[in-house]
Write a structure and sequence with these properties.
This protein is mainly beta. The protein contains 1 helix and 8 strands. Strands 1, 4, 5, 6, 7 and 8 form a 6-stranded antiparallel β-sheet that branches. Strands 2-3 form a two-stranded antiparallel sheet.
Amino acid sequence: MGGFSEVTGLQAEIEVQEYREGGLNGYIHKLAGPAKFSANLMLKRGIADNDVLWDWYAAVAKGNIQRQNGSVILLDPIGEPTKRWNFMAAYPVKWSGPDLKATGNEIAVESLELAHKGITLAR
């Protein structure tokens, strides 16, 4: 879908489930539970000529949920990929357009928030 100047929400955690064993009062067992991806991905970029992000959001807003797999690719200073995170079954849950101010000179930025089923690090 293009280059983004900012991506947030690349996070995952393991839920910890506590278990109290009868007769042991000195500690609580902490067992590893399922992986949890509680944060949505937030993608931000300068306004582009194409409307792909808006069209995807608009389709979902009309009830046509189109889940997509995708990747966030970190590039080095010369544009070569250094890391890749893959996300699964994502769909947009929020689109934000730019704040427009005639007296300002800020870059017009749009953002898209994606709910997803998980993130993996590509190797």
